[in-house]
């Protein structure tokens, strides 16, 4: 069965967390949000006539008649079906918690350029965005990534992955978050190799996985850009060291 991925056209966005899992699993999927027809298709699933299981927002995934929304929920669904979920209840629940922590982190990364509201332009909230970015860089990145670094170090299996002894969906998501942060804040993230050696080693290892490497080199992979969650506005970054 070919999965249908519903996500806005032209940005990696939160759809990227789902794509990375589908690509790693070599699972067939179709992008349903391409072009104006795709936008209409997405909207038809969100509107008043969308039925009892209408999602609130993309990304959402359809597997036949089953519809799943929210990145963490979708990855939970895919991970268990494609061998990318940890074994054992405690590890599965822990991995879900990590994924939800990344959900929070991604929201905070988004809010650096839209601290007042997503319906207003960045240009109308620049001073607030600068303040928010400064706090995000000085406190929140450290707190979130310091935590994920400790999780890898503390993994009893010493596998270099976040949970258990093999790759799971949350490793793929951390890979994308780190890539997004490096795109958005090149100066503030320049010393990540020294600060977060385990995370950066994991990121490198994931980038070399055959299915991921092939995907990254393909036209399916969209570039980060300034309509995305992770945006590069030089004025929001730290000054170079
Ligand atoms: N918690 C959701 C967040 C979904 C979300 O914020 N989607 C964005 C695009 S990345 C959207 O279209 N939001 C519309 C809105 O919030 O009104 C998830 O992790 O999937």
Name the average pLDDT.
97
Ligand species? glutathione
Q: What is the CATH topology assignment of the largest domain?
A: Glutathione S-transferase Yfyf (Class Pi), Chain A, domain 2
- What share of the residues lie within helices? 40-55%
DSSP helical segment count: 9
Largest sheet: 4 strands, mixed
Order of helices and strands: EHEHEEHHHHHHH
- How many angstroms separate the termini? 50 Å
Beta percentage is 5-15%
Q: What is the global morphology? A: globular
Q: Would you kindly provide a written description of the structure presented here, covering whatever features stand out?
A:
The protein is of the alpha+beta class. It folds into 2 domains: 3-81, Glutaredoxin (3-Layer(aba) Sandwich); 89-209 and 232-236, Glutathione S-transferase Yfyf (Class Pi), Chain A, domain 2, CATH 1.20.1050.10. Helices cover 51% and strands 6% of the residues. The chain has 9 helices and 4 strands; from the N terminus they run E-H-E-H-E-E-H-H-H-H-H-H-H. The chain has helices spanning 15-24, 35-46, 71-81, 89-111, 126-154, 169-184, 192-195, 197-207, 210-216, and strands at 3-6, 29-31, 60-63, 66-69. Helix 1 (15-24) runs parallel beside helix 3, helix 4 packs antiparallel against helix 5 (126-154) and helix 4 (89-111) runs parallel beside helix 6. The mean pLDDT is 97. Bound molecules: glutathione. Glutathione binds next to loops.
């Amino acid at each position: 069965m070919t999965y249908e991925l519903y996500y806005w056209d032209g940005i990696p966005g939160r759809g990227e967390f789902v794509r990375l899992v589908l690509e790693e699993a070599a699972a067939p999927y179709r992008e349903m949000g391409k072009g104006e027809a795709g936008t209409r298709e997405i909207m038809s699933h969100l509107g008043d006539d969308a039925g009892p299981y209408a999602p609130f927002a993309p990304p959402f995934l359809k597997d036949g008649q089953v519809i799943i929304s929210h990145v963490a929920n979708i990855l939970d669904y895919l991970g268990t079906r494609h061998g990318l979920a940890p074994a054992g209840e405690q590890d599965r629940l822990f991995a879900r918690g990590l994924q939800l922590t990344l959900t929070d982190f991604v929201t905070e990364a988004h809010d650096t350029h839209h601290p007042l509201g997503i319906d207003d332009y960045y240009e109308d909230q620049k001073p607030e965005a600068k303040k928010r970015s400064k706090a995000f860089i000085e406190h929140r990145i450290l707190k979130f990534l310091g935590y994920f670094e400790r999780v890898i170090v503390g993994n009893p299996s010493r596998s270099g992955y976040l949970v258990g002894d093999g790759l799971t969906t949350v490793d793929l998501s951390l890979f994308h978050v780190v890539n997004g942060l490096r795109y958005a804040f090149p100066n503030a993230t320049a010393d990540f190799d020294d600060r977060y050696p385990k995370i950066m080693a994991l990121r490198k290892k994931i980038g070399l996985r055959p299915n991921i490497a092939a995907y990254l080199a393909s036209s399916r992979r969209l570039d980060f850009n300034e309509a995305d969650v992770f945006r590069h506005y030089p004025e929001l970054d730290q000054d170079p060291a």
